[in-house]
Amino acid sequence: MQLAPGAWRYALPAFLLAGPVGLLSPIATLLALGFGGATLLFFRDPERGSPKYGVLSPADGRVSVIREEGNRVRVGVFMNVTDVHVNRAPLSGQVESVEHEPGKHRPAFSKESDNNEKVHIRFPEYDLTLIAGAFARRIHPYVEGGETLERGQRLGHIAFGSRADVLLPESFDLKDVGVAKGERVRAGETVLAASPAHRTESAE
């Protein structure tokens, strides 16, 4: 099983404790081993195949935000602790900048999460924002300004619960969004939005 960077750093302490805590109770050993295994499962990083058109979901989880912001549309995906937390590029393009924004750590599914700690990965046509949650204190971008990414390429991960938002290109509006709030999506596979022009180009 492929793992996101840093997986063993979080899981190894639990495995190392499994032996010593066994002196207290066999159940404690099982709990330590279970925690270590669950941590590695959390950091799983499966391969994905991407469709040839549209704006891809940057994260596994449920759609929690669909709203207009001026002449742009934002689509957000809430990642539960059981979801894959490796994030992927919704569209191809060159990274203009990667910016860290300090903030709070409210539950990522709440309206207050708009004020949470964030990492903005900006592209010429769209922006991707990785948002920390109540238990997510580590946002790990893999990319830097100047790098060119392909659609569906891995670009970062967030440790333990969070949200990923895509501010769609200006050419997209609400009618181009093909998902609904509460719908489950998969990073690099689910198409969040596709304009008629994109769908026509794909069919040709």
Please write the string of helix (H) and strand (E) elements: HHEEEEEEEEEEEEEEH
Q: What count of helical segments does DSSP give?
A: 3
- In this structure, how is the largest beta sheet organized? 7 strands, antiparallel
Number of strands: 14
CATH fold category name of the largest domain = Glucose Permease (Domain IIA)
Spatial arrangement of strands, main beta sheet = 6-7-8-12-3-2-13
How much β-strand is present in the residues?
25-35%
Assign the CATH architecture of the largest domain.
Distorted Sandwich
What is the CATH C level class of the largest domain, in words? Mainly Beta
Give a written overview of the molecule.
Pfam families: PS_Dcarbxylase. This is Phosphatidylserine decarboxylase. The structure is a single chain. With 204 residues, the chain is α+β, with helices and mostly antiparallel strands. It folds into 2 domains: 7-42, no CATH class; 55-193, Glucose Permease (Domain IIA) (Distorted Sandwich), CATH 2.70.70. It is built from 3 helices and 14 strands. The strands form 4 sheets. It has a 7-stranded antiparallel β-sheet, with no helix packed on it. Helix 1 packs antiparallel against helix 2. It is elongated. The two termini are 37 Å apart. Residues 200-204 have low confidence and may be disordered.
